[in-house]
Records
---
Amino acid sequence: MVEQHARISASVYTSHVPAIGAALDLGKSTEPYWQPVFQGYEASKQWMKDNQPDVIFLVYNDHATAFSLELIPTFAIGCAAEFQPADEGWGPRPVPVVQGHPELAAHIAQSVIQQDFDLTIVNKMDVDHGLTVPLSLLCGQPEAWPCPVIPFAVNVVQYPAPSGRRCLELGKAIRKAIESFDRPLNVQIWGTGGMSHQLQGARAGLINREFDNAFLDRLIADPEAQASVPHIDYVREAGSEGIELVMWLIARGAMADLAGGNAPEAIHRFYHVPASNTAVGHLILENR
């Protein structure tokens, strides 16, 4: 009998702008301002229906909801059976409870820690817009999310944030972990956050189309080079919150080509300015 293991079939990348969630929740997605944003995800929603995974491993950053200045894990993996939508000051989003996958999450934690990455294991946490907005963009407004989700929170809010190189190498470790899980699960890995934006200070409202699209180009074709870009370049070119883009490198690092496999196929790419005061970027890559 052939032993079967889990595999990563695709990686998904998307901004997680909180105002996008509010537009959906308040029924504003067809308004002229928001329509171009949501139109850019229509093909992805159909792709998601046609390529529904067994589990989503979702990389995002907590926005001072589950964590605060009292506790700042660099990398935290959610190992609970479920995760409640967070109240970020105006009540929880009216979205389904996120069902976890404790068995796979615990296996990934064990494997990645044994590969010398220090993870914080979290058995109870609420999940904010960083995680729920991406699910809404690709899954719509269902009564239940289509599959379990493993939340993976990265600190890109308080200095110091992990380097792009660290994030890419972590993605490689996550791929090894998933592929060593002895059940034939189809797993997608999502990297979220960004793109260029700054929410405060003299440069509030900064958006850099050129930087964002160059980032997408390199993410597809040369992720190793993108991983070498220092933090200061993100901050200078993409705004203080542009550093969220290093989380996309975790998802990219988990793709097969960085372990000697074929280059991934770009299924869909979308970029739009603005959504609220943020550039929205989106990409789907399939392993071949």
---
Amino acid sequence: MSLIGHYFTLRQHFARFVEPGLPANLTRWALPGHDQHGLAMQLSGAFAHASERELVVVLHGLGGSIQSRYMARALHAALARGVSCLLLNARGAGDSSGNIAHAGLIEDLEHALAAESLRSYERVYLFGYSMGGHVALRYASHDPDPRVKSVVALCSPLDLAANMRAFDQALVNPYRPYVLGGLAAQFARYSQGGRAPISVERARRIRRIFDWDRDVIAPVFGFESPWAYYEQCSAANTLDRLRVPALYVGAKHDPMIPYDTVSGALERDKGKLSVVWADSGGHLAFPARFSLGGPAQSSLEAQCLSWLQHPTRV
């Protein structure tokens, strides 16, 4: 992996301080429900109305929330195209309460799309960043709501075991503290319910994704081991079952989702999945004039929204 991937990724991290954030007039969205143990929880998010017929649901990455700055980019792109937008917090993120989430947890997306407040929409699109894209692809490979018409995943892992190895074994990884710090913060809220398998102090000392999956995800969700979790929940294993057109957009020098951890799975699929690679860029960070195939006259998010509305093979 070249240094260019780190450059783009870190440049975007600092650019968030000058990018526009979420507008103040968003509608708070909340939906009560129950976790896998039958205990009460609540999903949360932010909603912006622009259409009576079309809705895009935007999913954030691991350790993030709707406050992650890239979510604002998707929101602004949706509104510019006249599409209503729901920014959805994963379980345990932001104001979502109750349990914590894992990379294959599609049940909350199912629950959200069944909400009374969203039933009037005729066309629904899923737009996922990083781990959010993994959830969206996995959801679209099972029994998606018939209103879901297309999916876009940006810089998403596909093989959870391969990505774990790459993330944990990198000699220099400035992203581990950021991701694991976000997960530990979510875990601290979850632990207040008295059901956490380890202490908050121990969770904060975790330095590898594998340890997080072994000590937290596996016991909380009943997986026999992290390896069982990876096998059962990796989107790579179900891409050939996609029910709707999907687009995967990645950067070949992404330092968080390395090319060789996803390329094999993408090469195997020849069905409903289109793939576009950026020769430059980093994690969720692309050159200004990067194009999905046509003239790059707009932002990547705007191009993705256009593709979601009119999916074609790329």
---
Amino acid sequence: MDIKNGEIINLKQVDSTNSEAQRLLRKKKISTPLWIIADEQTSGKGRGEKKWISSKGNLFASLILPISFDIKNLPILSCAVSLATFECIKYFKKDDHFLKIKWPNDILFNDSKLSGILIENSLSTDLNYSIIGIGINVNSSPSKLDHSTSSLKSIIGEEIDLKPVLTQLSISLDKYLGKIESGELEDLVSEYTLKAWRLNEEVQFLAGKDSYIGTISSINKNFEIEININNKIKRFNSGELSFKY
């Protein structure tokens, strides 16, 4: 996929790098991976209706990825991107102690949110794209949210330049997205499961407007999460539930 050699568009400020990627795709065809990076977002996007707080000094990046793998494997894209982001963060943290992936694709350090991922797909009879939005709290993290947050700087104890973060992220994405192309899907899910947050532990979550308590039992080959609720296994797709943590 050659993501590490992809073109980079650097912006001082934008509403959302994902939104900018969508606007760009409406204007022209893009045949190779392209990054859109912003110093600051005024309306950063999270999953659903959530916002991504976007203070300067952190990484706000969207990768326009022309899809070259079988569309039926699209659910595993979130798995691969999560693993790549995890590996990128581990590269700077030097180990993965207290580092977990909260299904489907949040990276947590000691139960505090360190990174979030938003994938938006554009599928047509012509060309298929994924817009992979990745936010990493590099040098600061927001407060006054409904969950705790962390940053690489607070963990490591020193300021981190954003350029090497993007470089390492590109290298890791090349590696893990390449595994989708080569059909190593079960390996991806297996590695993800080893890094999964609260596996075999009790969690509280919302599905629609209903609140549940259950135990995460597994991540299956379709990248659905399986939760034991009152001795019955229920499967959920990305976007169907949100955890309280």
